[in-house]
Amino acid sequence: MSATLNADDAELAKFSALAHRWWDPESEFRPLHEINPLRLDWIDKHSPISGQRVIDVGCGGGILAESMARRGAQVTGIDLSDKALSVARLHALDSGIEVDYLKIPAEQIANERAGQYAVVSCMEMLEHVPDPASVVQACADLAAPGGSVYFSTLNRNPKSYLMAIVGAEYILNLLPRGTHEYARFIKPAELSRFARNAGLDVVELIGMHYNPFDKRYSLGPGTDVNYLVRCVKHA
């Protein structure tokens, strides 16, 4: 872990090593490509993003950030992986999509751009950092009063261990082995507490589910494994 950043060097190295495969829909990032339409539509349904300033915290190779820009949002994507950001910039250039990608910690840009974004997203990131509460606070600080903040992460319980690690990484091979560390999974009550302490109202928790028979993802009740949280910043 870095002494100065809320980041884990091993986690950054893990994703940087795969960065060149980020936009290959048949690669290790296939699940991100498959769930992206779900999370994009969910965000856009509750916070229409066309014409809005949006920031994607922990954007990686830019799958969500670029898709939000395609829908007319003015998007900033931040990450700490040089390789992932290089891939994101190259893909946006090739696609003709404008996204402002920056290598900067969430906490730092929150100090510089507090209250400037109508929508803040932080997807599949909190379980990879040493201090998720700090990232939640930064996301809250980035949001404008009355703005929306969206998170997704993994619950911590025996079922999530069996499905997200044993099942997804070792049996179904949906993810590379070692992608997740169970101890870093976050219970909905914990994430809700982080959000409330950061000045956010939690307005929705919804589960993301995978059907191994038809190999499809869906959103619905039940937050036992993967789940998303929608918050609104106090006006």
UniProtKB/TrEMBL annotation:
Keyword Transferase: yes
EC number: 2.1.1.222, 2.1.1.64
InterPro entries: SAM-dependent_MTases_sf, UbiG_MeTrfase
One example GO MF annotation: methyltransferase activity
Binding site for S-adenosyl-L-methionine: R39, G58, D79, M123
Gene Ontology biological process: methylation
Broad class of enzyme this protein falls into: transferase
Pfam families: Methyltransf_23
Catalytic reaction annotation: a 3-(all-trans-polyprenyl)benzene-1,2-diol + S-adenosyl-L-methionine = a 2-methoxy-6-(all-trans-polyprenyl)phenol + S-adenosyl-L-homocysteine + H(+); a 3-demethylubiquinol + S-adenosyl-L-methionine = a ubiquinol + S-adenosyl-L-homocysteine + H(+)
Source organism superkingdom: Bacteria
CDD domains: AdoMet_MTases
Keyword list, A-Z: Methyltransferase, S-adenosyl-L-methionine, Transferase, Ubiquinone biosynthesis
Pathway this chain belongs to: Cofactor biosynthesis; ubiquinone biosynthesis
Function of the protein: O-methyltransferase that catalyzes the 2 O-methylation steps in the ubiquinone biosynthetic pathway.
Assigned protein family: Belongs to the methyltransferase superfamily. UbiG/COQ3 family.
NCBIfam families recorded: UbiG
Protein name: Ubiquinone biosynthesis O-methyltransferase
Species of the source: Viridibacterium curvum
Lineage, uppermost ranks: Bacteria, Pseudomonadati, Pseudomonadota, Betaproteobacteria, Rhodocyclales
Gene field: ubiG
